[in-house]
């Protein structure tokens, strides 16, 4: 099998404007830094002992924040870990999982490792899952909402309809939900087959700490708990997570800035003749007038601005550009004007 190829992380990162992996250009809450330092202590003595195996304090903090009992929450070493464990828990060798293409192709890699079969569904022009059956009999269906790399989120009523049509589990990958107008968390309480995954990598600026979670019925959480590494989150990540989740003012302010810049940047690109998908994430998918994404990618790369170009025929006409700070996006726009 082929492995998944993550977005490029240049070694000389400080000399780039890095807009290729939807990281957050703003720093995390100062309270996160303080919590990590406090956990570490002056001589790092806390590191001698294992962390909480259940990450209990994190489940309680997230439960309080989202309105769920902690038994409905599991923490993960990045949401990638919990996506992997969902497949391990629900799809045995030869069983089927499905997802929308284009979205996050890592689901396919994770499924292949388990010997599960993978089906993909396309998107219709009005942004619905093309040809989704009246009853989907596969074990898991992954819906990335907001969709990455394209940007739009699926409406709640439509997601609810999909939940009713899935015989197996509907996983709502809400990696980008904090940047969106709404989310589908309420469906977890309403449908026993709905699982929502979240991450602190994007909106909380903590991609480097590897923190994610799933919210689902306690039976599902118990199944996921059985198969995870028992010490899946290290001490510093646990301290960082609690502090980050408790600083909602910081989160709100950061998301507000990114949403404002997203609106401004999208309008400016449209004025240049680009097709820009309406985005609910911290990125936009934009295609230049000549539909040659590679050309603009190369021009930006020469100017040390890194964005994401996909060779996939459905995506190669455009670019996925993460929304950085207003200043980074002004420089990116100026470069795009120069490139033409
Ligand atoms: C749709 C989607 N799901 C999951 C992930 C993985 O996120 P994490 O950093 O929490 O593992 C990403 C990361 O880019 C993503 O775009």
Structure summary:
The protein is α/β, with parallel strands linked by helices and 340 residues long.
Q: How would you describe this protein?
A:
This protein has 340 residues and is of the alpha/beta class. The chain folds into two domains: 13-27 and 249-339, Aspartate Aminotransferase, domain 1 (Alpha-Beta Complex); 30-246, Aspartate Aminotransferase, domain 2. The chain is built from eleven helices and twelve strands. The protein has helices spanning 30-40, 56-66, 79-90, 106-113, 156-165, 186-190, 218-227, 235-246, 248-271, 293-302, 326-339, and strands spanning 17-18, 73-76, 96-100, 117-121, 140-144, 169-173, 194-199, 212-215, 275-276, 283-287, 305-306, 319-322. The strands form three sheets. Strands 2-8-7-6-5-3-4 form a seven-stranded mixed β-sheet, sandwiched between helices. The chain starts with 16 loop residues before the first strand and ends with a helix. Bound molecules: pyridoxal-5'-phosphate. Residues 22, 78-80, 104, 144, 148, 173, 175, 199, 201, 207, 212 line the site of pyridoxal-5'-phosphate.
Q: Tags for this entry?
A:
globular, 2 domains, alpha/beta, Aspartate Aminotransferase, domain 2, seven-stranded mixed sheet, 340 residues, Aspartate Aminotransferase, domain 1, binds pyridoxal-5'-phosphate
């Amino acid at each position: 099998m082929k492995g998944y190829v993550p977005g490029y992380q240049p070694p000389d990162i400080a000399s780039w404007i890095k807009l290729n992996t939807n990281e957050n250009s703003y720093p995390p809450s100062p309270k996160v830094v303080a919590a990590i330092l406090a956990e570490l202590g002056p001589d790092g003595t806390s590191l001698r002992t294992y962390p909480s195996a259940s990450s209990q304090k994190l489940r309680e903090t997230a439960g309080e924040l989202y309105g769920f009992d902690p038994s409905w929450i599991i923490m993960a070493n990045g949401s990638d870990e919990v996506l992997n464990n969902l497949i391990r828990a629900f799809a045995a060798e030869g069983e089927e999982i499905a997802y929308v293409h284009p979205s996050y192709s890592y689901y396919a890699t994770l499924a292949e490792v388990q010997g599960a079969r993978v089906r993909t569904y396309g998107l219709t022009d009005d942004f619905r899952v093309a040809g989704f059956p009246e009853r989907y009999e596969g074990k898991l269906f992954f819906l990335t909402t907001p969709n990455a790399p394209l940007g739009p989120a699926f409406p709640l009523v439509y997601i609810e309809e999909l939940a009713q049509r899935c015989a197996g589990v509907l996983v709502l990958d809400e990696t980008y939900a904090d940047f969106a107008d709404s989310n589908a968390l309420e469906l977890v309480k309403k449908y026993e087959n709905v699982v929502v995954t979240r991450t602190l990598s994007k909106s909380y600026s903590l991609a480097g700490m590897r923190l994610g979670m799933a919210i689902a019925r306690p039976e599902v959480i118990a199944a996921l708990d059985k198969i995870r590494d028992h010490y899946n989150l290290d001490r510093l990540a646990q301290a960082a997570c609690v502090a980050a989740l408790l600083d909602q003012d910081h989160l709100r302010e950061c998301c507000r800035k990114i949403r404002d810049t997203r609106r401004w940047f999208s309008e400016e690109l449209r004025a240049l003749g680009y097709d820009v998908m309406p985005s609910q994430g911290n990125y936009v998918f934009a295609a230049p007038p000549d539909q040659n994404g590679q050309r603009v990618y190369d021009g930006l790369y020469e100017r040390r601005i890194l964005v994401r170009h996909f060779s996939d025929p459905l995506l190669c006409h455009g670019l996925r550009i993460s929304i950085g700070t207003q200043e980074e996006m002004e420089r990116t726009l100026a470069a795009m004007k120069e490139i033409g």
